[in-house]
Design a protein that fits this description.
Helix content is 56%, strand content 0%. By secondary structure, it is mostly helical. The chain has one domain. It is elongated and about 65 Å long.
């Protein structure tokens, strides 16, 4: 079995591919797109030993809120 990535430029091509899938000549699988969020999450998980504690996060949030409401 060989796997190929195909960019569909014309909607007619998609219907042709669906026809081939109906004949069980090919199988169509949608590729899950990687999101920016998942990339950020992976980056943060890789740096988990350097992650701030919940107390540090809470302190930072409180400082930002205080600065916002003082305006």
């Amino acid at each position: 079995m060989e796997t190929l990535k195909v960019d569909i430029l014309n909607p007619k091509a998609k219907s042709l591919l669906k026809g081939l899938a109906d004949l069980k000549l090919i199988r169509i699988q949608k590729e899950r797109a990687k999101t920016d969020f998942s990339e950020l999450l992976n980056k943060l998980r890789n740096n988990a030993d350097k992650a701030p504690s919940i107390e540090e996060i809470t302190k930072e949030v409180e400082e930002v809120r205080k600065a916002r409401y003082e305006k």
